[in-house]
Every structure is written in C-alpha cells, then in structure tokens.
Amino acid sequence: MFDMNEKSEHIHPVFDSILGRQDKEVLLNQHAKVIWMTGLSGSGKTTIAVALERALNEQGFLTQVLDGDNVRVGINNNLGFSEEDRTENIRRIAEVSKLFLNCGIITINCFVSPTIEIRANAKKIIGADNFLEVFVNTPIEICEKRDVKGLYKKARAGEIKNFTGIDAPFEAPQNPNIYIITDELTVEEAATQILEYIIPLITRK
C-alpha cells in the first residue's frame, strides 16, 4: 500500500483543464448552491426536500437530492454510526456535494449531521458562499410519534446505539440561513419558505 506522501506523488488532478463551474452554470442558466438540511430523524427533512425539488423543477432548475438512507446504501454502505463513521459519512457527502456544485447543480441534502463541528467541516469542504444551512426544527416528541421507520422505538429499547436525540446529542445550528418549525407549517409552506430564500441566490441575472 502507498503511504500518504508516496500516494500524493501519483495523483495528478485535472481541474485546471476541464470545463469549470461557470461554464456549466451558463449552460443550465442557474447558480449552484448546496442546501444543507439538518434536524432530528423524523423531523421532515426529506419530505420537505422532495417538495422543494419539485417546486424548483417546475421553475426550470436542475437539482439533486442527497438523502441519508440513499447514500448509506450506496457510497457509504461500509460505514456504521460510531462518531468516526458519522464524521466520515458527512465528509464523503460534502465531497460529493462539491462535485455536483462544480457541475452547476443545486444540491438538496437531508442529513441529521448532529454536531456543529461536523456541519462546519462540511461547510469548509463545500465553501461558505455555497453552503446554505436549513434547520428543520421538530420537537423530539413529534419525531417519535411519526417514527415511520421504527427507529426511536428500537433506540429506546436499546436495539440501536448512538441514536441522535436518545443516547447521542444533537447540537442545533446557531445561525442557520433558514429556520423551519415544522409543527407550525405544512410541508408546502416549509418548502415555499426555503424556495423564497434561495430563488434570488440561484437565479442568473
């Protein structure tokens, strides 16, 4: 196996020779952003993201939704839920998001991403100007009532360890770009709130 120094000698990125993000944004007639939705499991992140993507599609924007479950059955299927694996999970997602960003695509991410540090690392990889944090704030009592996957029940029974909100912490964003309180809004209202914020940022003038 290569050590890191030897490995780096054999890596030759071609970023300077391939078409850049601006070329692709012109083609797509949009500005790319990464919309990073964070909140407890069952808070409504993915449901809102689906509604948001459809609204953006209707207005002619090209998007990609990245969801925790979908990513974990694919690119991150070798990761568990330890602190180290959670960190690596988000790192990989941030790198994939950066690739979509450089293709001019608006990426909507739905991940618990439970700590301030883990989201800060994602923001650093993606770039602060490209990263829009959305806090989907739903009381844990409501998340547990929804619990369509039965995860909270299993966590309460000790069948799932390190489950955010039960035996692992969730650190709420301190200054999110968008703050969604789902028990006060319908899915459509929540999606519209995000849409109204991002439209000026993704529309080419």
Task: Name the descriptors.
single chain, 205 residues, alpha/beta, Rossmann fold, 9 helices, 45% helix, globular
Protein topology:
Layout: H1 4-9, H2 21-28, E1 34-38, H3 45-58, E2 63-67, H4 68-72, H5 83-102, E3 106-110, H6 116-126, E4 131-137, H7 140-146, H8 151-156, E5 178-181, H9 187-202
Parallel strand pairs: 1-3, 1-4, 2-3, 4-5
Please provide the ordered H/E string of secondary-structure elements. Answer: HHEHEHHEHEHHEH
DSSP strand count? 5
| Proportion of helical residues | 40-55%
Which term fits the overall shape?
globular
State which percent range the strand residues make up: 5-15%
Unreliable runs, pLDDT <50, ≥5 residues?
Answer: none
CATH superfamily: P-loop containing nucleotide triphosphate hydrolases
Please count the helical segments: 9
CATH fold assignment:
Rossmann fold
Structural class: alpha/beta
Overall average residue pLDDT: 91
Number of domains: 1
- Would you state the CATH class? Alpha Beta
Side-by-side strand order of the widest sheet: 2-3-1-4-5
The biggest sheet, with number of strands, parallel, antiparallel or mixed sense and barrel status, is: 5 strands, parallel
- What Rg do the Cα atoms give? 18 Å
What is the CATH architecture descriptor? 3-Layer(aba) Sandwich
- Report how far apart the termini are: 50 Å
